[in-house]
Amino acid sequence: MQRIYVIATGGTIEKVYSEQTGNVENLDSKIERYFRLLRLPDAEVHITHLMNKDSLEMTADDRDRVLEAVRDRLRESAPVVITHGTDTMVETGRMLQQSLPELRHPIVLTGAMTPLGFEGSDGLQNLTESLMAARILGPGVYVVMHNQVFPIEHARKDREKARFVWK
Amino acid sequence: MQRIYVIATGGTIEKVYSEQTGNVENLDSKIERYFRLLRLPDAEVHITHLMNKDSLEMTADDRDRVLEAVRDRLRESAPVVITHGTDTMVETGRMLQQSLPELRHPIVLTGAMTPLGFEGSDGLQNLTESLMAARILGPGVYVVMHNQVFPIEHARKDREKARFVWK
Amino acid sequence: MQRIYVIATGGTIEKVYSEQTGNVENLDSKIERYFRLLRLPDAEVHITHLMNKDSLEMTADDRDRVLEAVRDRLRESAPVVITHGTDTMVETGRMLQQSLPELRHPIVLTGAMTPLGFEGSDGLQNLTESLMAARILGPGVYVVMHNQVFPIEHARKDREKARFVWK
Amino acid sequence: MQRIYVIATGGTIEKVYSEQTGNVENLDSKIERYFRLLRLPDAEVHITHLMNKDSLEMTADDRDRVLEAVRDRLRESAPVVITHGTDTMVETGRMLQQSLPELRHPIVLTGAMTPLGFEGSDGLQNLTESLMAARILGPGVYVVMHNQVFPIEHARKDREKARFVWK
């Protein structure tokens, strides 16, 4: 059995459509429902819903909470996947890299350009890829999306293209 | 072969998620893509994209355009299905009823509470029901959604419940 | 509230893929799961799983059980939808029509060419249409599939075209 | 841009439901359609449909054709993903490993327990994982499915559990 920790922080991947307002918002968590669509016979996935925020609204305090949550889970000697809004994913990743100098496991940040369950969503693809990458990658902080693996220092969001690119 | 005319005017049923803005908007038409998921071997469905508006933004001029479009199609002696935002669907329906006193075919208004292709969407259900109802119902103006058929004078949107109710 | 009785007898619409044998079989009932995808706010749907058979294997005794089940439900003064294999759907429908001469509600037979939940399936479309037709149609026995309504005496399965045609 | 070669040989992952026979069969290729659901902005995926067989029907000649196809693609210095029936996937993988001693790239075998597009299918998950694993893994021959990576010499199909296990 491979233990994998997942820390959910919100972002587009978790947004839901509100029939009352007509907007998509971080109202509810849904990644558990989508994990259940995957077959993970020898993975023990532990999901923590840390917060549910658009990443543009994440504060320094929020990032400290993410850091503490990651630190706790690394003590269990297992990889960590963080679902996160794409707008400040790199900022959070860099902070983690600077604060956690002696990693022995991979920390994978992922998210989505379109919410899970909306037509054309990349959410389930990115979750699937991140769980696979978390098993294979060496220690380090990475962004994993769209069949790409970026060491955090080389990741940059290209808003126009709606994806990450190398820098 | 049964001919059925579909007039698309926008509304939630056609909204798409924009990866650039993070909003759902009437940017693009998609009902044709969803009609293709249905098997309609002896129906000849003619779709007209008349406008693509949130129904709260429909003006009296817009409603006149809908009326003209319906009048044109009724001349072909076939039922008409109108996809429409739910907020002012009843208003448009009543105007049609008043302006078209001698109907020989049903006019069915439908829409959705959640856009086509979003998880939990009622859009394809409502399209499917409307095409069926358009074949069976007698002359008149109706709202058809959620397995319900409302003669237009008895339809009222209940925003809290996110559906239509009898009045 | 509109009460609707559903009697499930099996057929392709309910077939499931067996990972052990690699075949599709009537092993398990699934229409309830698919009904839950529909919004039916004022319908009270009562589902009975009468049997789960490929309709080519239905016997005269099985048809008698269907007849008894229909008779019971008609006493409640509500329409009845029967999910059934397409190969002998017409045979069952004709027997019902002959045995139930004084109908006051519609009896709708439906099914699918491809099982519910398989890509390209017509199952959910046919369920949606049948529930709508059961509300609107007058008394009689009908086949409802693919946006078509056949009085039972005019229905014939065209195996090549994988649909029903008029006769 | 990362080039990835995909060689499709058939197996459950590509099976389709035939409305004429009521069986699932290797009649048609469909992985291309499912690849199109994935976002692969910097991957150049080349798909070859080598054969479309239930893997229980693969002959020694068929395996030689697979070997030749892999050899050709390895010359282009890129990883290879092979979609394959699960019943003899290990046999093909071992033959490749023995015949290709000096690998400089990963060869990933994958498949599915339930065909692509059938409810509950693991096919898209396995394709997604294999494309990710093909980018990260070192040289060698592997089975990748269900969030697991098996070096070929440690893979064994457990038919009861409908998955691969370590040996």
- Rounded average pLDDT of chain A: 96
Unreliable segments of 5+ consecutive residues of chain A: none
Structural class of chain A: alpha/beta
Number of helices of chain A: 4
Strand fraction of chain A: 25-35%
Physical arrangement of strands within the biggest beta sheet of chain A? 4-1-5-6-7-8
The count of strands of chain A amounts to: 10
What does the largest sheet of chain A look like?
A: 6 strands, mixed
Query: Which percent bin holds the helix content of chain A?
Result: 25-40%
The H/E string of chain A reads EEEHEHEHEHEEEE
Overall, the morphology of chain A is globular
Computed over alpha carbons, the radius of gyration of chain A is 15 Å
Tell me which oligomeric state these chains represent.
Answer: homotetramer
Q: Largest interface, by Cβ-Cβ below 8 angstroms: which chains and how many residues each?
A: A-D, 25 and 25 residues
Report, as a whole number of angstroms, the end-to-end distance of chain A.
Answer: 36 Å
Notes on the structure:
Four copies of one chain form a homotetramer. Chain A is of the alpha/beta class and 167 residues long. Chain A has helices at residues 31-35, 60-74, 89-99, 123-136, and strands spanning 2-10, 16-17, 24-25, 43-53, 80-83, 106-110, 140-145, 148-151, 155-158, 163-166. In chain A, the strands form three sheets. In chain A, strands 4-1-5-6-7-8 form a six-stranded mixed beta sheet, sandwiched between helices. Chain A has a two-stranded antiparallel sheet with strand order 2-3. In chain A, helix 2 (60-74) crosses helix 3 (89-99). The radius of gyration of chain A is 15 Å and the shape is globular.
